[in-house]
Amino acid sequence: MHVPEQRTVALVSELGGSVEFREDYPVPKPGQNEVLAKVIYTGVCQSDLHTKNGTAASAEGTPITKIKLPHIGGHEGVGRILALGPGCGSDLKVGGLVGIRFSSRICRRCEYCLAGTEQYCIKSTNHLHHEDGSFQQYIALDADYLTILPDDVDPRVIGPVLCAGVTAYKAVLNANIRAGNWLVVVGAGGGLGHLAVQYAKAQGALVIGVDAGDKRDFVLNLGAVEFIDFTTADPVQRVHEITGLGAHAAVVTAGSAKAFAHACEMLRVGGALSCVGIPPGRPTLQTPICTIVIKGLRITGNLVGSLKECMEAVDLVRRGVVKPEIKVRPFRELPQVYEEMEKGDIAGRIVLQISE
C-alpha cells in the first residue's frame, strides 16, 4: 500500500494550550517488531481533554506532569495495517484492522503482566502521556502487543469500545453482580455511562440510570428499567424507594466530585461501589468509615482492562449485544468537541473520522 511522506496531526504544544493542526509531520517508519497503521476513526475520551488541559490526575491525586510534548492525544483509534517492520510475526497481514488503545507497550515480565493485569505494568507506556496517539493519520504500533480486530467489525463504532467500552465492562465485572441484581449507573447518558448500562444489562442486572432529565429517553432506550433525574430528585432516596434495601452495586462514570459524594449511601449491605470517572483535583468520597465497615461495602477502581477483557468487550459489540451510541464528526472538529465535552452537552460518544 502507498505510504506518504507526511501526515496531518492534532498537536498540543503545551498543556492547557489549544489544538493546532499540522500537515507536515513526517510519517513514522515501523521499527523492529512494529507495524505502521493508517488511522481511520477514533473516539474522543474525557481523559484526552484532561491531558490537554493539564488536569490529568496521577494515582496520588496530583496532576501528571511527565507528558510527552508536543502532545498528540487519542487512544480509542481504529486503523488498517499499511506496512510491517522487521521481526513481525506471520500472523499479521497488511490491510488488517487494528486498535489503538490506552496501553501501548508492556514489559510482559512483571508481576502484573504475568497475572493478566498488564494495564498496571510497572514499565508500561501509553498513548495518552508517553506516545503519540490516534489524533493523527498514521501511527507506529508495537506488533507484540497489538490489538488485532476481527475483519467484520464496524470501525466507526469499535473505537470507543477500546477505552470507554472496556472500562465500563471492567467496572461491571468488578461490581460482581448476579442476574436480577439492582445496579445503579451514575452518569448513565455519557460516553462511559451509556456503555455501562448495556454491559450491566448483558450481565442480567436491573439497571437504574442517573443523569439529567434530558437524557431520560436515551437511557431508558438503552435498557435501563428505571431513570432518576438528579436535578429534580434525590438519587439516594429514589434508589431506596425503587429497590427497598438499596442497590447491590453502583457504577459511577461521571467525572464529577458530586456524582461520587453520596454513592455509597445508595448501596445495601454487602454492596459494591465501582469507581470509573476521575474528577479533576483531589476530591474524596464523603462516606464515614463506620458505614463502610458496618455495611460491609466493597469499593473498587477501574483502569481500563487487559487485552483479553478488551476483546471480550469488543465481541459483545460485534454480536450486537451492546450498541455504542456514536456521532461521527470530521477530524478538524476536535476543538469544538472538547468545548462540548467541557459543557457536558454530549450524549453517547463522539467519533472523529481521521482518514478515508
TrEMBL record:
<dbReference type="InterPro" id="IPR013149">
    <property type="entry name" value="ADH-like_C"/>
</dbReference>
<dbReference type="Pfam" id="PF00107">
    <property type="entry name" value="ADH_zinc_N"/>
</dbReference>
<protein>
    <submittedName>
        <fullName>Putative alcohol dehydrogenase</fullName>
    </submittedName>
</protein>
<dbReference type="InterPro" id="IPR036291">
    <property type="entry name" value="NAD(P)-bd_dom_sf"/>
</dbReference>
<keyword id="KW-0862">Zinc</keyword>
<keyword id="KW-0560">Oxidoreductase</keyword>
<keyword id="KW-0520">NAD</keyword>
<dbReference type="InterPro" id="IPR020843">
    <property type="entry name" value="ER"/>
</dbReference>
<dbReference type="InterPro" id="IPR011032">
    <property type="entry name" value="GroES-like_sf"/>
</dbReference>
<dbReference type="GO" id="GO:0008270">
    <property type="term" value="F:zinc ion binding"/>
</dbReference>
<comment type="similarity">
    <text>Belongs to the zinc-containing alcohol dehydrogenase family.</text>
</comment>
<feature type="domain" description="Enoyl reductase (ER)">
    <location>
        <begin position="16"/>
        <end position="352"/>
    </location>
</feature>
<keyword id="KW-0479">Metal-binding</keyword>
<dbReference type="Pfam" id="PF08240">
    <property type="entry name" value="ADH_N"/>
</dbReference>
<dbReference type="GO" id="GO:0004022">
    <property type="term" value="F:alcohol dehydrogenase (NAD+) activity"/>
</dbReference>
<dbReference type="InterPro" id="IPR013154">
    <property type="entry name" value="ADH-like_N"/>
</dbReference>
<dbReference type="GO" id="GO:0005737">
    <property type="term" value="C:cytoplasm"/>
</dbReference>
<dbReference type="InterPro" id="IPR002328">
    <property type="entry name" value="ADH_Zn_CS"/>
</dbReference>
